[in-house]
């Protein structure tokens, strides 16, 4: 991975999204059935917010200890919409922004995901810290580079 490459080279493009009027039961189903931690909120194709798994768990106030807690949480999820708990003022990247710019955003703000939007505000992807880790792990290192690294240390 080259940090000067554009974020579009490593971002996730197959996204699961929700709309502002969706019930939180839909968000719970997404988190329960997919290995993701951030769900972009869109109005048509325009990004309007994001819900993190942490925000969602905070809304639920932790774990379900008994059947009564589960019943109350189910009722709350049916009563509230995505719009009620989504984060609205979010950082965004352009598909052509460099990966090093994304790294700075992650470091400064301690985010774990940043939506990637086109000039007209349409959601094109999301870049997560996991995407960066995958790209680094996939980077091929030659035996010569390993030897050179050992000589320097």
Helix/sheet category: alpha+beta
What order do the SSEs take from the amino end to the carboxyl end, as H and E? HEEHHHHEEHH
Please report the distance between the alpha carbons of the first and last residues. Answer: 22 Å
Which parts are unreliable, with pLDDT below 50 for 5 consecutive residues or more?
none
- CATH architecture classification name: Roll
Tally of structural domains: 1
Basic shape: elongated
What's the CATH class label? Answer: Alpha Beta
The helix tally amounts to 7
Mean of pLDDT = 90
Count of extended strands: 4
Give the biggest sheet.
Answer: 2 strands, antiparallel
**Strand numbers in spatial order across the main sheet:** 1-2
Helical coverage, percent range: 40-55%
At the fourth level of CATH, the homologous superfamily is: CBS-domain
Strand content: 15-25%
Under CATH, the topology can be stated as CBS-domain
Q: What is the CA-atom radius of gyration, in angstroms?
A: 19 Å
Pfam family, one: CBS
InterPro entries: CBS_dom, CBS_dom_sf, Diverse_CBS-Domain
Organism: Phaeodactylibacter xiamenensis
Protein name: CBS domain-containing protein
